[in-house]
Every structure is written in C-alpha cells, then in structure tokens.
Amino acid sequence: MKEDFIIENGSCRITKKAVNHNPRHMLPVVDWLSDVPHTGDEEDLVEVQFKNTRKAYYHNSNKLPLEKGVSVVVEANPGTDLGEVTLIGKLVPLQMKKNRINTERYEIRHVLRLATKEDLTRAEEAHAKEQETMIKSRQLAKSLGLEMKIGDVEYQGDGSKAIFYYIADGRVDFRQLIKVYAETFRIRIEMKQIGARQEAGRIGGTGPCGRELCCSTWMTQFSSVGTNAARIQNISLNPQKLAGQCAKLKCCLNYEVPVYEEAVKKLPSRNIPLETKDATYYFFSSDPLKGEVTYSTDSHRPANLETITPAKAHEIIEMNRRGEKPLNLGGKQSAVVIMETDYQNVVGQDDLTRFDKKKNNKNNGGHRGGRNNDHRNNNRRNHEKGNSSRAD
Questions:
Q1: Which value, to the nearest 10 degrees, does the dihedral of the CA atoms of residues 370, 372, 376, 377 take?
Q2: How many CA atoms lie within 13 A of 247 on its CB side?
Q3: pTM more than 0.85
Q4: How far apart are CA 37 and CA 216, in angstroms?
C-alpha cells in the first residue's frame, strides 16, 4: 500500500497516519511507530480525545479496527460518550506514564463500537446546547451570589450529562447550585474546577506572536512561571507585556530560560568593578547570548561606555586581584551620535516655520486699525501740550 508522506527528511518521516490533522482537535501526538508493522495490534489500549483538551484511555476489548481520526462510542458514567481516536499502539502506555496516570487507581473503561450516523447526530445536537447552557448557568451562579465563573460547558455524547468547568479563587459551596442546574437543565451535573491557563487552553485564541496559543495546541502540562524568568532574559517587567490572555505570566517565558541560565554563568559578577589606569569601570548591562558586557565609568548613569567580552572581564578581574591594572579596557566604545538634518519640504509639505510667522488679520487692519492709531496719537499730543503749559 502506497503512503503519502508529509515530511521526509532522511530517516525522519511523518506520515498521514502519524499525525491527527483534524483542526477541531488539539494537542496531537506524533506516532513515530506508525511505519513499523504490527505495532498497533499488540496493545489494546487506545487514547480518545473529546472536546478541546479532554482525553481518556480505553480498552479495545472488542478488537475493533481502530485508526487515528475514527469516531468511537465509549463507556461513560452514566451512559455513553463519543470521541475521536488520537493514539493507538505501544505509545499509549508511554503516554499514560508521561501523564502520570496510575493504572491501579485509574478506571479504564472500554470502547463499545464505531460511531454510527445516529451517534454523530445525537452528539451534534447535544453540543449545540453548550453555548446556551453556559450563558444560562452563569446567570444562575450570579443570582446565588457565588464567586465563581463558568468557563465552559461540555455535554456528553448521548446528552445525559454535562460537565461545567468553573474558575474560582477559593472554595465554593455549589451544592445548591447543582440542584438548581439539575432542575433547570434536566441532566446529570458534574462540576470541575480549572485554572486560568486551562481555561485559555479550552477556549483557544491567537497570541501576540501571531500563532495559536501553546496551551491549546501542544502543551499538556503547565509549569509555574515566575518573574525571575523575565529578569534572567533582561526583559522589561511590564505586566501588560508579560501577561498572556489568561492574565497570568506567559508560558513562553520559560522556553529559553535554560539557555540564558547557561549563558549567564559565563558573565562576571555585577558587583565587581574593573580597575584600569585611566578610570574605574562599573557594570552597566550585558547581553548573555551575544557574549558581551558593557561597563560605565559612572556607577549610576551611562558614561564612557565600553563593551568587552566576559573572558576579557574575567581577565581584568584576575589582574586586579593581583594588584595589577591594565592601561584600559580595550573594548568597543559606545557613543551616542545625534544627527542634525535640515528640514526638507517633500511631498508638498508646508514649511515647519509657518507657525512662527505672524498672521495678518484683514478684519483688524484697514480703517479700524487706522482710527485706533489716530486716536492714540491725538491723546499723546494733548498730553504733551498739557505738560508744556504747566512748565510755562
């Protein structure tokens, strides 16, 4: 059977069977064993994905011919649910181990059958109610005065149960809320608390980088992100730029931290000045990835900046410890050059000095201005005559 390869680069190949191409589902797992024959028949465990990021593992006890992208009906509590197979074969136990799923405590249910048209229609009808149910559930929670937010609602495939995902800062007593939900929606209710990052992963969106959010595409576990990650990378501590759509620090701040930590180890201490025969230089800034350190002759402001390598800085520090001083740092001088250019009138622009010119007001000139000037002159002559008569 001929296969169409999507990527072929030497020994690394990804086939259509290896990746789930359904844009409706996220967090696909690359099956790098898809080209190896008989790897999917030796393990009856399969991974099934439901709405957004929810996944579960099931036994294929009926030996159904399952492949990635196939919709199946699985056991649920209560009733049945409908999902899509995202992983089969030997990688499923490894994926369960990665997700820290204890097989002794985790109840592994079974795949019942391949989904029929009736199953798909029933699931679509159930999912169509989710938006309306979420809006109504938020109103009910607000009417009861509960400090919580319903972030998402997910109906089970057969429509007999709904999972309400909520966000809350503290503990919430929602026993009365469950009763109200059950009476209003006439279904089985399950409340599940999630964090702000998990909510962003379920809703999805586009980040400031122009790509789809990492939490909704490939991230399966969320690591804590601190402001120290921004300090190590010399990123400005601006909350508006560091926060993601979940109002938490961006997960991508952790991506390059190990690289910066390794590069920072090569930099000299910020508290050690460099003594030379012409001046004393203090640490001003650094670029760990470029391998450059900038020093200033003033400890509080930039003055006579010079940029050298960390190796050169360590060499000068060692010389200072021996009581020796080099003639100078011997680095690149950083100077600020202000370019003064004359204004040029291009594309029909007006002269910038037009605001300095006095405007001739035609209404104030002419006869009115002349009469005012004559009146002032007559007053001046009368005043001079009066002074001369007193002198006589």
A1: 20
A2: 3
A3: no
A4: 32
What separation in angstroms does the CA of 196 have from each of 28, 193, 203? 22, 10, 11
**Is the CB of residue 102 less than 8 Å from the CB of residue 67?**
no
Taking the C-alpha atoms of residue 357 and residue 360, their distance in angstroms, rounded to an integer, is 9
Q: CA distances (Å), 242 to each of 105, 197, 214, 254, 307, in order?
A: 39, 14, 15, 12, 29
List, in order, residues 6 or more apart from 226 with CB less than 8 Å away: 249
* Structural domain spans, the chain: 5-115, 125-199, 223-265, 274-334
Secondary structure (3-state) at 331:
coil
- 64 CB-near residues (< 8 Å, 6+ apart): 72, 111, 113, 114
In sequence order, the 6+-apart residues with CB closer than 8 A to the CB of 50 are 56, 81, 82, 83, 84, 154
Q: What angle do CA 349, 353, 355 make, to 5 degrees?
A: 100
State both tokens at 199.
């909510």
Can you tell me the distance from the alpha carbon of 170 to that of 178, in angstroms, rounded to the nearest whole number? 18
Measured CA to CA, the distance from residue 245 to residue 115 in angstroms comes to 36
How far apart CA 265 and CA 352 sit, in angstroms, is 53
CATH code: domain 125-199 is 3.30.300.20
Strands (E), 214-327: 274-275, 280-287, 292-296, 305-308
In whole angstroms, what is the distance from residue 193 CA to residue 253 CA?
25
**Tens place of pLDDT for every residue, the chain, 392 residues?**
444 444 444 434 444 444 433 434 445 566 656 655 555 456 788 999 888 778 889 999 888 888 888 999 999 988 899 999 988 888 888 888 887 887 777 788 999 999 999 999 999 999 999 999 999 999 999 999 888 889 889 999 988 999 999 988 888 888 899 999 999 999 999 999 888 888 888 778 888 888 888 888 887 677 888 888 888 888 888 888 888 888 889 999 999 999 999 998 888 988 999 999 888 999 998 888 888 999 998 888 888 888 999 999 999 999 999 998 888 887 666 544 334 444 444 444 444 344 444 555 544 444 444 444 555 555 555 555 554 444 44
